[in-house]
Amino acid sequence: MSDPTAVIETVNITKRFKEVLAVDSLSMKVQKGEIFGFLGPNGAGKSTTIKMVMGLFHPTSGSAFINGKPAGPDSVELRRDIGFLPERISFYDNLTPIQTLNFYCELRGADKSVVPSLIKEVGLEHAANRKVGTFSKGMVQLLGVAQAMIGNPSIYIMDEPTGGLDARWVKTVRDKIRTLNEQGATIIFSSHILSEVQALCHRIAIIDKGRLVVEGTVEDISDRLRIMPRLWIQASGIDKETITAIRSIAGVEEVSMSDEGLLVTCETEARMTVIASLRERGVAVSDFKTIDPSLEEAFVRLLSDKEGS
Questions:
Q1: Which phi and psi angles does 254 have, rounded to 5°?
Q2: Residue 300 covered by a domain
Q3: What is the pLDDT of residues 252-271, one digit of tens each?
Q4: Where in the sequence is the domain holding 261, given as residue range(s)?
Q5: Are residues 100 and 18 both part of a single domain?
Q6: pLDDT grade, residue 309 (50/70/90)?
């Protein structure tokens, strides 16, 4: 049975290519209005899962659902409400962005009058009459985002939307994802770039070797793994005895010193005790801040725990 509240859902979905098990009994849910990050190393099964949801691959077993209804090769009407950006998008080199989007409008039965505004929304109005064959990879990716927006879908599925892009284009694509979400769209995007997911997503699912490792918010995952925040302290007059004293405070897990300052991994309740202890020992604290656990730390810990189990 599917969850009628889920926008996208997979239930024990599996895909085998001869001897290769690409996706292994994967179950996950994407709720309406969220930015959902689908995360995993290269070859984890992300693109294969997306293609099964989009009806491009037949599952070996299990099911995918779109708005509570079975998704498959024949579910054309369900997919009309999905803007899809594949991992490797390509267009006809001899067409301009206007001609390209007009072509996609014809395929989807959409009004071509939206094309100029779509081109403007992704920042390609300066190149509207250039041949796509002259575009950089970033410009092609933005045109891909524009084609996904045709028909004003309520769901977007983007496979590695910023893969291989330089920083300028990454920011542009990120901003577009945020804007679409603010306008009410549900966004699912896959990535192996951890910082990308942490910057954008409400919830994430991490998969490895085709299997679900964990699903939840970054905070939930960090809490579950007991990944503690770190306290960064800029101070002068710290000696070895002071570091030893800080290590002995209840709730402190690790202490390290560098040119940038003192880094203390500790429980939230121990932070002010650390600061007070430094001041009591005559250390001049000029600045301090909390560094929250990163998705990179959660990811490494999750995969390490999985491999050790």
A1: -150, 145
A2: no
A3: 988 988 877 899 988 888 89
A4: 228-292
A5: yes
A6: low
